[in-house]
Amino acid sequence: MGKGGMSREGGDEENMAAWLVGLNTLKIQPFTLPPLGPYDVRVSMKAVGICGSDVHYLKTLRCAHFVVKEPMVIGHECAGIIEEVGSEVKTLVPGDRVALEPGISCWRCDHCKEGRYNLCPDMKFFATPPVHGSLANQVVHPADLCFKLPDNVSLEEGAMCEPLSVGVHACRRANVGPETNVLVMGAGPIGLVTMLAARAFGAPRIVIVDVDDHRLSVAKDLGADDIVKVSTDMKDIPEEVVLIQKAMATEIDVSFDCAGFNKTMSTALNATRSGGKVCLVGMGHNEMTVPLTPAAAREVDVIGIFRYKNTWPLCLEFLRSGKIDVKPLITHRFGFSQKEVEDAFETSARGGNAIKVMFNL
């Protein structure tokens, strides 16, 4: 977890966590909490979602350049109830329902001092090796990274603030507004929250693209103005660009590649208007072969995002006000037993009709 922790064989076993102990192997084992610091809170976890990165760690013991080298508690999309507060915590009290921002930055490096703390090289992020995660009965976390939920926002919705933050940060980076027509490549969880965020930021028209009929139907139900089914064949890009532009019925100002393949990035670069932007969202393939020079000749800006910064208050306001409804994204729910943890991760890994798999602790 963010403040550290360790496995133990004996003693008080009240606090249990889901440990990634080997390839395709999760075990619920005791998890010792660190002492509560003056600015920390102890949180009883109530809702934890499964992210694609969690599945990558389970299946490969790595995600991008992060490698699991020793047993690690999994999970980082989370919300819970305050059980105890440190002596200097003034903003939270036991019983408060909170959503947790999972990354603890150093606040000393240049990135942090410039306000871009998501780029902090010393970030301690839930379930990013070697830092433990939050799929546990309880965790200890800094109070300033725990955000009180509005009365009409559930704990599950609070846990969804983490993936939603990715979409919100992407829209901020791309300056999405009421005059921005948006293309989203990929209708997985991140593509869908990016679509919802773009709408909340005022995008008047949004087209979403995927290879899967079910996910496209979900996107349509969630408010996409149009959907386009595509193939995985690079040779189809020219005709698919025509179809996408026809579906948009106006110029594409910003494209979000939420899949991260050669084909999705190439399609986005070709479909976006001259002077527009293409934003790569999330962890795509490490190396891509894409038509950068033609895009540069049209002054298409390519931007990237990494996690998020200062997004939880806005996410919670979007949820409170009803501008964004993430409830339809939660398709599967599991409890916190050994079998249910294993079944939940297999459900998430299979994909199919699963969008967001959620634990209720």
Automatic annotation (TrEMBL):
Coiled coil: none
Keyword Oxidoreductase: yes
Gene3D superfamilies according to UniProt: Medium-chain alcohol dehydrogenases, catalytic domain, NAD(P)-binding Rossmann-like Domain
Domain Enoyl reductase (ER): 22-359
The keyword Chloroplast appears for this protein: no
Cofactor: Zn(2+)
GO molecular-function terms, A-Z: oxidoreductase activity, acting on the CH-OH group of donors, NAD or NADP as acceptor; zinc ion binding
Keywords attached to this entry: Metal-binding, NAD, Oxidoreductase, Zinc
Matching CDD domains: sorbitol_DH
Source superkingdom: Eukaryota
Pfam families hit by this protein: ADH_N, ADH_zinc_N
Similarity comment: family membership: Belongs to the zinc-containing alcohol dehydrogenase family.
PANTHER family xrefs: SORBITOL DEHYDROGENASE
This protein's name: Enoyl reductase (ER) domain-containing protein
